[in-house]
Every structure is written in structure tokens, then in C-alpha cells.
Design goal:
The protein is an alpha+beta fold. 24% of the residues lie in helices and 25% in strands.
Length: 284
């Protein structure tokens, strides 16, 4: 396979590409700018690669990453109107998408304001906030399996649940969204983003919520009830503002965060007999 037109870098610092600013060096770092380039790489490497989107919801080891890392580049960052639907590339950030919606009076996504993710990650984990999931707005999704085979699926062909979807290990290429016209987008954005600022710690690098909420429980409440807010290890801290956030105060390492995660699991289980499930994805 020829990789002449595919951008390749070596020994790339992954901490520069994660929202918590933690991560070792990637031995091989490919930038795929088209589905064709992505499929060429996948056909060569198969499942033995990491796919990098916006870098949120992942915790990357400080050790060298031996698996090739493929980042979806600018060719996956677009917003187009097609037949009354909005077609959005997987690498498009939520911030860019919301800005487009604001300019064109398109509603439905305001409740997600403030999540530092790209469309691919939002769909894969079925991002939700304030009782609304992004899956309710999906028309179609184009996916590639880990060998480069592409499918275009309708919403009814996929299963979405709380912080999960049947997308699984497949890679989102683009999705169409069905968004209603709204004259209240600006006000709703202010409202929801304001709520997020009040309740979540966005002052330090973080990777979002660490744990999924157990059924009928809030992970943040459970952690707070154990008196763990503010606990520190190295440069990592359980946020005093939202206990389900672990923030990087400047020099946090993977092991610092891993220690706090294990501590939370242990203490919450001992007090509440509940096993917390991690929402983040680890790269080691």
C-alpha cells in the first residue's frame, strides 16, 4: 500500500490532542482527510489502530503508544445542506455545529452546548444532557468498519441507549441530522451553557464525566456523598465543583487519574454497594 498522499508524523505528543492534556507519544500518527484515505489505512492495519476525534472522553497512557493513531482531518470537518437535512462530517466540532445552527435558526442541539466533542464522538456515545439525546435527531449515519468497509445506515438500523450505541467499534464518517427551525436558539444556548458553567468544572483540562450514572442515581452525587470532592493525586484532582469530573491542575499524569478513579470506585462500592462504570475510554 502506498501512503504517499497520506500525512504521517512520528513521535507525536498525544497530550496536545486530548482535552485533559494527558498522553504519551504516538509512534505513528496518520492524518486521514478523506474516507478513501481512512479506508486505505484501515485495510492495512485492521482493528489494530486508535481513531482520534476531538480527544474528549479518552484517557491516554503516558507511555509510548505503539498502535498507529489515525486522526480524522479537515476533510471530515464540514456542514452541508442536502434535501432538507444537515449533513455533518465526523470531525466537525459541536461548537462549530452550534454556531451554524445559531446562524440558520436550527434547533435541537442547544442542550449539548459546552461539550468539547466532535460529531463522531457525540454519536458513538449518544451524547445526552438535560433529558435529551442526540440520537433523536439522527437521519442517517455513514460508518466504516475496522477494515475499511463502508455502510450507510438509517436511524432505525441503529440502537442507541444511555451513553452507548450499536456503532460500537465502527467509525463515524458523517451523519445527517433532522433539525427543526427555531427562533429561540440563541436564548436556549445561553440557558443551557449557563447551566453547564454553574454545574461543571470547565476551568481546568478534563475529559468530561468519568463515570456513567447508575440507574436512577447520579455518579456525581454518589462520589460527593463519600466526601471525595477535592481529593488530589499528583496533578489530578476530583473537581470540588462536580465530583464526576477529574481535572488536570497542570501536571497530571495517567497514573494520577487512574489512582483517583480506582479510589472512587472502591469508596463508592463500600458505602453504596454500587459498581461505577467508566464512561471514558482508555488508551494504553
Amino acid at each position: 500500500m502506498s501512503l504517499k498522499k497520506i500525512e504521517l508524523e512520528t513521535n507525536v505528543e498525544l497530550k496536545d490532542y486530548t482535552t485533559i492534556r494527558i498522553g504519551g507519544r504516538a509512534k505513528f500518527f496518520f492524518l486521514a482527510n478523506t474516507p478513501e484515505e481512512l479506508c486505505r489505512l484501515l485495510s492495512e492495519f485492521g482493528p489494530g489502530v486508535y481513531i482520534l476525534g476531538g480527544g474528549s472522553n479518552i484517557l491516554v497512557s503516558d507511555s509510548p503508544i505503539e498502535k498507529p493513531v489515525i486522526k480524522l482531518g479537515a476533510g471530515f470537518d464540514y456542514i452541508e445542506e442536502r434535501e432538507g437535512r444537515l449533513v455533518v462530517g465526523a470531525a466537525t466540532t459541536l461548537a462549530s455545529l452550534l454556531n451554524y445552527c445559531l446562524k440558520h435558526d436550527l434547533g435541537g442541539l442547544e442542550n449539548l452546548a459546552g461539550i468539547p466533542a466532535t460529531l463522531g464522538g457525540l454519536l458513538k456515545l449518544n451524547a445526552s444532557a438535560y433529558d435529551r439525546q442526540i440520537s433523536t435527531l439522527v437521519g442517517e449515519v455513514a460508518l466504516s468498519d475496522r477494515w475499511g468497509n463502508i455502510q450507510e445506515l438509517r436511524r432505525k438500523d441503529l440502537v442507541f441507549g444511555y451513553r452507548t450505541s450499536s456503532i460500537g467499534e465502527r467509525i463515524v464518517l458523517w451523519a445527517s441530522l433532522i433539525l427543526p427551525q427555531s427562533r429561540e436558539v440563541k436564548e436556549r444556548l445561553k440557558t443551557f451553557f449557563g447551566r453547564r458553567l454553574k454545574s461543571q468544572d470547565l476551568s481546568f483540562p478534563n475529559c468530561g464525566c468519568i463515570f456513567k450514572n447508575p440507574e436512577k442515581k447520579s455518579a456525581g452525587f454518589l462520589i460527593d456523598s463519600c466526601g471525595l470532592k477535592g481529593m488530589e493525586k499528583g496533578g489530578a484532582r476530583i473537581s470540588p465543583k462536580h465530583a464526576n469530573f477529574i481535572v488536570n491542575t497542570g501536571s497530571a499524569k495517567y497514573n494520577d487519574v487512574a489512582y483517583l478513579i480506582d479510589k472512587i470506585k472502591d469508596v463508592v462500592y463500600k458505602k453504596h454497594s454500587i459498581i461505577l462504570e467508566e464512561e471514558i475510554i482508555r488508551w494504553a
